[in-house]
UniProtKB/TrEMBL annotation:
This is FeoA domain-containing protein. GO terms for molecular function: transition metal ion binding. It comes from Pantoea piersonii. SUPFAM superfamilies: C-terminal domain of transcriptional repressors. Gene3D superfamilies: 2.30.30.90.
Length: 79
């Protein structure tokens, strides 16, 4: 899965090893199955990523982004 700036992804779920506390935090911020996230940009050294969900931007580390199960919007990666 190639996640790059300018792409949109739909959250389909979460990795099984995601802590309960962190999953609650993500849920409270709107990171729920079915939500669409936009990858806005990555920091100069590649971590963290700025993601936008429901008109709000957040910074997520690559390790946190990896905890999300994602599928590309519009059928293709980089769509």
């Amino acid at each position: 899965m190639l996640i790059k700036p300018g792409t949109q992804w739909r959250i389909t779920g979460f990795q099984s090893d995601l802590s309960r506390l962190f999953s609650r935090k993500l849920f409270s911020l709107g990171f729920v199955p079915g939500a669409v996230i936009d990858i806005v940009r990555f920091a100069p050294l590649g971590d963290p990523a700025e993601v936008r969900i429901r008109h709000t931007s957040y910074a997520l580390r690559k390790s946190e982004l990896a905890m999300l199960r994602l599928e590309p919007v519009n059928g293709g990666e980089g769509a």
